[in-house]
Design goal:
single chain; alpha+beta; 5-stranded mixed sheet; two-stranded antiparallel sheet; 3 helices; 30% helix; 33% strand
């Protein structure tokens, strides 16, 4: 994953895309910020969370992780990208939206 991570960072820089890499995700409880070890791979334009994987198959734990990051960061959209496939365009990516996205249309 780290090789892909570094290449994506370079692409974002070359394209002048605003991003945060290995962002520590704050957790608030009763007005207090708690320390956490939660880190998302990328937060793009403060809207999109990207999690990179290189695994045989995406499981529900990875999906729950991404959805948690999206909720804690108030990000509308998230994407899981798995590089351990022959074709990531057809098999290796899945996009998620959370309840905040649905509220845009209310």
């Amino acid at each position: 994953e780290s090789v892909y991570h570094q290449r994506i960072i370079k692409e974002f820089e070359l394209r002048n895309i605003n991003f945060k890499s290995e962002l520590e995700i704050p957790i608030k409880y009763k007005g207090f910020e708690m320390q956490s070890k939660l880190r998302c791979d990328f937060l793009i334009e403060d809207l999109l969370v990207i999690e990179l994987k290189s695994v045989a198959e995406i499981n529900s734990l990875f999906e729950a992780q991404l959805l948690t990051y999206m909720n804690l960061l108030n990000a509308l959209i998230g994407s899981l990208i798995n590089f351990n496939l022959k074709n990531i365009f057809y098999e290796g990516q899945k996009t998620y939206v959370n309840k905040l996205y649905n509220e845009l249309w209310d």
